[in-house]
Amino acid sequence: AQTVTQSQPEMSVQEAETVTLSCTYDTSESDYYLFWYKQPPSRQMILVIRQEAYKQQNATENRFSVNFQKAAKSFSLKISDSQLGDAAMYFCAYRRRDGATNKLIFGTGTLLAVQP
Amino acid sequence: KAGVTQTPRYLIKTRGQQVTLSCSPISGHRSVSWYQQTPGQGLQFLFEYFSETQRNKGNFPGRFSGRQFSNSRSEMNVSTLELGDSALYLCASSFAGGENIQYFGAGTRLSVL
Predict the structure, then answer these.
(1) Among A37, A53, B8, B40, which is least packed, fewest CB within 10 Å?
(2) Which of B46, B52, B33 is nearest to B97 (CA)?
């Protein structure tokens, strides 16, 4: 069975600084997706970034980038130039790529605080 | 384009009652998945519907059920509510599996007293 682990329950960063959130996962599959979702107090889960396992290049979306280490089964999220609006719970998630399911397996989340 | 709509936003029930939650996916999306979010267990997959058929189910008791209509709207039902069913229930929709991204609704907060 696949598992996702986030070992940092809480993180804090100063506004305009950079922070990295960690995620490790376990799977026997070779083809899958990894995601970072953001859940602000409004509860709406928002996709931050997606990484396809077959792509070696790390995904980037504006101030958000990932460090994907497939062999180590590690998938960290780097937030550059942190903004107050980045404060939220961040979830790492895994999904198989076979098209037969949309089931996401989530980590336990990291609560990010941004200090002004 | 309207997002995923979940109704109601908040619900208060008592033990033993049953409840039905609704999820209207983004127009054109045929896949709807449900998740339960609690402080203790985190986010757990309940089930997924695609074209009115349940194609995946999580590890929840039979009190949890769902269905999907021909317009892709989905409902989930919880019978004989227990205190432990208090949670945020999230719905996500997408076109299908594979490359498609899932979009989440704002959830229904269920409190069981």
Answers:
(1) B40
(2) B33
- What is the three-class DSSP state of A85? helix
- Which chain A residues are Cβ-neighbours of B100 within 8 angstroms? 102
Flag whether pLDDT at B1 surpasses 70. no
Checking if the pLDDT of B4 tops 90, the result is yes
Residue A88 to residue A110: CA distance in whole angstroms: 8
Cβ distance B43 to A106 less than 8 Å, yes or no, reads yes
Q: Are A5 and A23 in contact (CB under 8 A)?
A: yes
**Residues forming beta bridges with residue B100, ordered by sequence position:** none
Tell me the nearest-neighbour CA distance from A116 into chain B, angstroms.
Answer: 27
* pLDDT of B96 above 90: no
Spatial CB neighbours of A96, under 8 Å, sequence gap ≥ 6: A2, A29, A31, A32, A33, A103
Quote the tokens at residue A65. 């980038």
pLDDT of residue B5 exceeding 70, the answer is yes
What distance in Å separates the CA atoms of residue B23 and residue B72, rounded to the nearest whole number? 9
